[in-house]
């Protein structure tokens, strides 16, 4: 069954694909800018704790369910449900998951389009075409629609190739490029005047800020969003994993890569902000707070690049290329969630499913663009702050309470025969049953009621 629907050809391919799904704008844009706006190292500290203590266990729940069922999220949750009511609950959870993934991709495509436009603007400047570059960085409707459509076209093209020839092949190419580019940028930025001040903000925590309820809620949202949890992306990727693979090890590697890149991005973005301030660019508003996240990326950093001459143009190209690659590796996993469901539950061909669903999400992106002030923030908030944690809670419910523990252990033993005697199995079942759902719900209620 698994081979008929596609399977990752190697452990490296899965890790690159899953890490690519996890590593996106949430890591390279969202995490550093949220850290900058929420106490720097205090946010980093809380994020690391939540990522390891909450996000990793939920990631494992998705991977285990996915590989056990070798199917899409809806069918997988139905398969492990013990009764009619729980099967209906599984159906609802899976459907809400792929709807949420589709809405995330709809606003993601808008932001990714901006990244691609800025990348090409730097290329235009290098080629001596300043008028084209000016049009590319202008927030015009035509430009926004054009690059949103271009990004969706790239996503559709990769997913249309299937698991091995599409997702795995391109993730295995793009992720190493992303890592090398980021490391080079970090090394360069840290040599500039002002970078050390940003480094201090990032690494020296204010522990009073670390216990702020608002900071904890934002850090949880960052952890869930950056690991692509709740919407079924990791479940679907897990369904393409061979039964011979050790899932706790694979999940741990994906989590470490994701967190590592988020932390590495902080070494790039925060020092770059203070380099910009050192160069005369304003990074604080009149109230003394850091300016908004989108302004940091699309105003502060470009202004910094402008002060650096030709080197700034090259750095600008590399930076926005990095952002575009991160967006693409995440978007393909989001599109695969509704595509997998449609192929397996509705009997569509992959080509038909990819084209029609990609077109529908493109229309959703267009509606967001044409009603940007009203819809963009609303869609981001509903999907990432509320829907993803609630869906993560449901995966905890299924793995911790509804799916028989012996069945979970047997699934893990397929690739890890000694797992029962290891640390993971001694901790994870109780953790996913009691700790994760309780903490997720507490933080979720805090997000609603303040």
UniProtKB/TrEMBL annotation:
Keyword vocabulary terms for this entry: Membrane, Transmembrane, Transmembrane helix, Transport
CDD domains assigned: SLC6sbd_Tyt1-Like
InterPro entries in alphabetical order: Na/ntran_symport, SNS_sf, YocR/YhdH-like
UniProt xrefs under Pfam families: SNF (PF00209)
Keyword Transmembrane among record annotations: yes
Xref: PROSITE patterns: NA_NEUROTRAN_SYMP_3
Membrane-crossing segments per the record: 12-29, 41-59, 89-109, 144-163, 175-195, 215-237, 249-276, 310-332, 353-380, 386-403, 431-449
SUPFAM superfamilies from the UniProt entry: SNF-like
Protein name: Sodium-dependent transporter
PANTHER family (alphabetical): TRANSPORTER
Membrane topology listed for this record: Multi-pass membrane protein
Localization: Membrane
Organism whose genome encodes this protein: Candidatus Litorirhabdus singularis
């Amino acid at each position: 069954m698994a081979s008929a629907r596609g399977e990752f050809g190697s452990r490296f391919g899965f890790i690159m694909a899953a890490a690519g799904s996890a590593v996106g704008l949430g890591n390279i844009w969202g995490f550093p800018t949220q850290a900058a706006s929420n106490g720097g190292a205090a946010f980093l500290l809380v994020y690391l704790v939540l990522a390891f203590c909450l996000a990793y266990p939920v990631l494992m729940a998705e991977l285990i369910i996915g590989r056990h069922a070798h199917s899409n999220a809806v069918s997988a949750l139905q398969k492990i449900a013990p009764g009619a009511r729980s099967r209906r609950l599984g159906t609802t959870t899976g459907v809400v998951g792929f709807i949420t993934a589709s809405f995330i991709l709809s606003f993601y495509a808008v932001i990714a389009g901006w990244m691609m436009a800025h990348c090409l603007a730097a290329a235009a400047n290098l080629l001596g075409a300043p008028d084209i570059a000016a049009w590319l960085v202008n927030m015009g409707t035509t430009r926004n629609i054009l690059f949103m459509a271009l990004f969706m076209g790239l996503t559709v093209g990769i997913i249309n190739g299937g698991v091995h020839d599409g997702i795995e092949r391109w993730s295995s190419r793009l992720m190493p490029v992303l890592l090398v580019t980021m490391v080079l940028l970090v090394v360069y930025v840290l040599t500039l005047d002002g970078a050390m001040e940003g480094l201090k903000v990032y690494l020296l925590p204010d522990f009073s800020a670390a216990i702020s309820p608002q900071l904890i809620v934002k850090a949880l949202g960052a952890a869930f969003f950056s690991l692509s949890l709740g919407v079924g992306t990791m479940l679907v990727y897990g369904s393409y994993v061979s039964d011979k693979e050790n899932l706790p090890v694979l999940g741990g590697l994906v989590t470490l890569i994701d967190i590592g890149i988020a932390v590495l991005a902080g070494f790039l973005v925060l020092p770059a902000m203070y380099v910009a301030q050192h160069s005369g660019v304003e990074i604080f508003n009149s109230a003394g707070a850091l300016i908004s996240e989108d302004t940091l990326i699309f105003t502060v950093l470009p202004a910094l690049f402008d002060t650096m001459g030709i080197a700034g143009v090259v750095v600008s190209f590399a930076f926005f290329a990095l952002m575009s690659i991160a967006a693409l590796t995440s978007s393909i996993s989001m599109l695969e969630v509704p595509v997998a469901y449609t192929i397996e539950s509705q009997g569509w061909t992959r080509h038909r499913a990819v084209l029609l669903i990609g077109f529908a999400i493109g229309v959703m992106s267009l509606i967001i663009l044409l009603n940007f002030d009203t819809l963009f923030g609303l869609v981001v908030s509903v999907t990432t702050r509320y829907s993803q944690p609630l869906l993560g809670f449901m995966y905890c419910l299924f793995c911790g309470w509804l799916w028989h523990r012996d069945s979970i252990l047997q699934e893990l033993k397929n690739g890890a025969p000694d797992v029962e005697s290891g640390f993971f199995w001694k901790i994870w079942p109780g953790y996913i049953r009691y700790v994760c759902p309780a903490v997720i719900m507490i933080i979720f209620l805090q997000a609603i009621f303040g």
